[in-house]
Design brief:
By secondary structure, the protein is mainly α. The chain contains 5 helices and no strands.
Amino acid sequence: MPRSKNKVASRAKRKKILDMAKGNFGRRKNVYTVAKNTVEKGLEHAYKGRKLKKREFRALWIQRINAATRLNGLSYSVFMNKLKIAKIDLDRKALSEIAYNDAAAFKAIVDKVK
């Protein structure tokens, strides 16, 4: 009896890889073995990128808060310490949004902390 190879599943798997490789140049988009390598590497970079994005946004928030606090006569580290002492529970994302979009409200927070 011949071995069953499940052609439908095999084709679906190859089609999925080739669909993910769409937009690449040359053999990367239409030769399965080359496309598979490209897609695997792309997925690795996407995974790393999702981790890096978190780091980069936190750094951006800190830079925005630091710039705004220095305009109000404090450094970032002193401001964050005084926030904690004053028991104001605003995360860096929220503080940076306030600092970026509403300088008066951020100044009020800094004055309350001082």
